[in-house]
Design brief:
9 helices; 2 domains; Rossmann fold; 346 residues; 13 strands; alpha/beta
């Protein structure tokens, strides 16, 4: 909202002197100190011409009075400062994520197909967060560093496929790389971020890598980074697709799930996070929504008034009018001093 106000409104009382100036102008003798160029207004031969310096001088005086009153435009501004998080998603891409023990619209889907849209929705709900993705199987690597470009990040998540890296489940390495990324970002960002946390999703037990889950957990604990763990898939025998050498699906077989829940529970409890068992699509959605509620984005809003000084917009034209009045008055004085030429006798 914009408002026009005056910082020194008492100067506006000077406008009450204008009627007195006009009255003085009608007199034969006008105090020049009170009314600039007043003497030039009363030359009989220039009655019409003298209106210009008079009008300009009065206009200039009015504008200068407004300038002295310091007109200001006041704008009510609202500033919202959003504090976001740095968070890493560590996602299992081992072969067991092909297990088709989830369902969507009445059809069986595998574990990766079930989690991808939920992860994308989670990313979209956190516009003020820097989010990165680590994927792991027999080894771990960074799919996407921490970024605010959530559209690009969503496309990377959509492209996730099983078999991109050697098979196995390196949970410790996956968590370790996620923690390393957060540490690097923390050094770069300083204290401007609200905090950091990791979301770790797997359906198996650690059987590869150089860093054990216990070692990675200790690192997270020492750095004060909560780890939210999710155990995917159902217990017992679960259906897996069977492919031939050409990559064509030729059937289904059932294999025993090997989720190490105790390890995931221990990681979450030791770091101040929480463990979620996500054995269906609704459970996955509920888990990510629960993390949204736990790790909320905080906002700090403040209001302030933005003041714009308008002094120059009145003072400049005011002095300009007085200058023109002086020029007109001087020109009128020269014209009034000329005498007509004597007639030539013949």
């Amino acid at each position: 909202m914009n408002n026009l106000t005056f910082h020194s409104p008492l100067w506006l009382l000077a406008l009450l002197l204008i009627p007195a100036v006009l009255w003085l102008r009608g007199r034969r003798a006008v105090p020049v100190l009170l009314v600039p160029f007043a003497a030039a207004w009363h030359r009989p031969s220039l009655a019409t011409f003298s209106r210009w310096p008079a009008g300009l001088a009065l206009t200039g005086l009015v504008l200068l009075v407004f300038a002295l009153a310091r007109p200001q435009r006041i704008e009510d501004k609202h500033e919202v400062h959003a504090e976001g998080y740095d968070l890493m998603l560590a996602i299992d891409l081992s072969g067991s994520m092909l297990a088709e023990d989830y369902e969507k619209d009445g059809s069986a889907i595998n574990r990766l197909q079930a989690i991808k849209p939920v992860i994308q929705a989670f990313i979209n709900r956190r516009p003020n967060d820097r989010i990165g993705v680590v994927v792991f199987s027999g080894r771990a690597y960074t799919l996407a560093p921490l970024t605010f470009d959530h559209d690009w990040l969503g496309r990377q998540v959509e492209r996730l496929k099983i078999g991109l890296i050697e098979d196995g489940t390196a949970i410790g390495d996956g968590l370790g790389i996620a923690l390393t990324r957060l540490e690097q970002a923390g050094r770069e960002q300083g204290s401007h971020r609200k905090g950091a946390f990791v979301v770790l999703l797997t359906d198996g037990a650690n059987n590869r890598g150089t860093l054990t889950p216990a070692q990675a957990t200790e690192i997270a604990k020492n750095r004060g980074i909560p780890v939210y763990t999710m155990g995917a898939g159902k217990d017992g025998l679960v259906p897996f697709p069977v492919f031939d050498e050409a990559g064509n699906r030729v059937g289904t077989r059932r294999l025993m799930a090997d989720l190490d829940e105790n390890s995931l529970i221990g990681i979450a409890n030791a770091t101040g996070g929480h463990y979620f068992r996500v054995d269906d699509t609704k459970a996955i959605e509920s888990a990510f929504k629960a993390i949204d509620q736990t790790q909320k984005i905080e906002f700090q809003a403040k209001s302030y008034l933005l003041t714009t000084e308008l002094f120059v917009w009145f003072a400049g034209p005011g002095f300009g009018c007085l200058l023109l009045a002086a020029l007109f008055a001087r020109t009128g004085a020269k014209l009034s001093g000329r005498t007509p030429a004597a007639p030539v006798s013949t």
